[in-house]
């Protein structure tokens, strides 16, 4: 079978039936798979999925302290900006455009490390990157790890049920995983370590990175605003980590055809451009599916793209050495022909 068909860990309910149709598991099946895959006593290779959700649970006390002890309108504003704009934009800059699609290149490792750690770390690169390649190859088809047609829970719990890499890859296939992850700077397991832990990254290194990143940012927030600000922004990071799990369900029209002429030009799947994700994170999703390797997806004047502004600024400063920008192609191949067709239709109507 093709690499893209086997690289992710297949859920117990499968991707498709014998006729090739998408399997839409019941909520009970989804929850059963979810809790089974969090059980490290049953299988230690579940460690990465468990760690991802433990991070979220660790943020609950911080969020509670913000709400019940430190709450103020200024801190509410800080939480809103950090969760929606800063965390959202960083996810697009780092996980999406760099780690997955290689839309730009850093001048050196320092600037890569700097960009990676601009925010509190919440999502393991390995879970995001490999599965997102599959998502683009199989968008809205059986095997898409967050296929919106299978429902909200299918997408929301996908990081555990559908996104982890398979635990039984051949050495050649594991080397292909390594090639997709190498540029991220995340250190790879050897093949024997991969067979033991079921992951690209070693749990020891992952937990050390988690500790150092969180320690740095709590100390930085504390120096800026004491425990009140630190608890507020850590709680906001946890809020974002839950909210981002809903994005692909919404970004693919909840499994329905919600595309609009003149707005959504990629019609090979159900991806749509949405105003709010576009503004807060630069996620003009239909544009992105048209040109996945572009460092910019906000092509039109009203499509604010703060992720692109960061990439362009860092390029100007010399921290980013090169990038892909598909804006010119977008106008040439899609926007301009569409406007010309509208004008021709109007002219014929007047005639």
TrEMBL record:
Membrane topology note = Multi-pass membrane protein
User: InterPro entries, per this entry?
Assistant: Acyl-CoA_DS (IPR015876), FA_desaturase_dom (IPR005804)
All residue ranges annotated as the Fatty acid desaturase domain in the record: 74-305
Localization: Membrane
One Pfam entry name: FA_desaturase
- First-listed, main subcellular location of the protein, grouped into a coarse class: membrane
Give the superkingdom in one word: Bacteria
Question: For this UniProt entry, which segments traverse the membrane?
Answer: 47-68, 74-94, 216-242
Keywords noted in UniProt: Fatty acid biosynthesis, Fatty acid metabolism, Iron, Lipid biosynthesis, Lipid metabolism, Membrane, Oxidoreductase, Transmembrane, Transmembrane helix
Fetch the PANTHER family from UniProt. Answer: ACYL-COA DESATURASE (PTHR11351), DESATURASE 1, ISOFORM A-RELATED (PTHR11351:SF31)
Which family is this sequence assigned to? Answer: Belongs to the fatty acid desaturase type 2 family.
**What's the name of the protein?**
Acyl-CoA desaturase
Natural source organism = Dyadobacter endophyticus
């Amino acid at each position: 079978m093709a690499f893209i068909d086997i690289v992710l860990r297949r859920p117990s309910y499968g991707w498709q039936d014998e006729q090739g149709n998408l399997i839409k598991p019941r909520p009970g099946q989804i929850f059963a798979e979810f809790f089974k895959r969090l059980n490290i006593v049953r299988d230690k290779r579940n460690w990465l999925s468990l760690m991802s959700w433990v991070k979220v649970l660790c943020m609950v006390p911080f969020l509670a302290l913000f709400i019940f002890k430190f709450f103020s309108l200024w801190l509410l504003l800080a939480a809103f900006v950090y969760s929606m704009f800063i965390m959202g934009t960083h996810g697009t800059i780092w996980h999406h455009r760099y780690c997955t699609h290689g839309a730009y290149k850093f001048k050196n490792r320092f600037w890569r490390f700097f960009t990676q750690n601009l925010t509190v770390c919440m999502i393991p690169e390995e879970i995001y990157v490999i599965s997102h390649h599959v998502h683009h190859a199989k968008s809205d088809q059986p095997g898409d790890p967050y296929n919106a047609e299978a429902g909200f829970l299918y997408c929301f719990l996908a990081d555990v049920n559908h996104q982890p890499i398979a635990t039984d890859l051949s050495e050649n296939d594991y080397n292909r995983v390594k090639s997709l992850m190498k540029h991220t700077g995340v250190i790879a397991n050897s093949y024997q370590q991969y067979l033991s832990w079921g992951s690209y990254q070693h749990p020891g290194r992952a937990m050390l990175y988690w500790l150092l990143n969180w320690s740095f940012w709590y100390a930085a927030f504390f120096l800026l605003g004491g425990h009140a600000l630190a608890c507020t922004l850590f709680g906001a990071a946890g809020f974002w980590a839950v909210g981002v799990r809903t994005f692909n369900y919404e970004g693919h029209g909840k499994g329905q055809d919600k595309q609009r002429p003149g707005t959504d030009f990629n019609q090979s799947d159900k991806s749509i451009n949405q105003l709010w994700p576009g503004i807060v994170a630069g996620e003009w999703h239909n544009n992105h599916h048209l040109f996945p390797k572009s460092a910019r997806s906000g092509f039109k004047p009203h499509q604010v793209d703060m992720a692109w502004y960061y990439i362009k600024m860092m390029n100007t400063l010399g921290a980013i050495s090169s990038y892909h920008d598909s804006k010119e192609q977008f106008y040439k191949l899609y926007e301009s022909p569409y406007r010309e067709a509208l004008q021709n239709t109007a002219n014929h109507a007047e005639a």
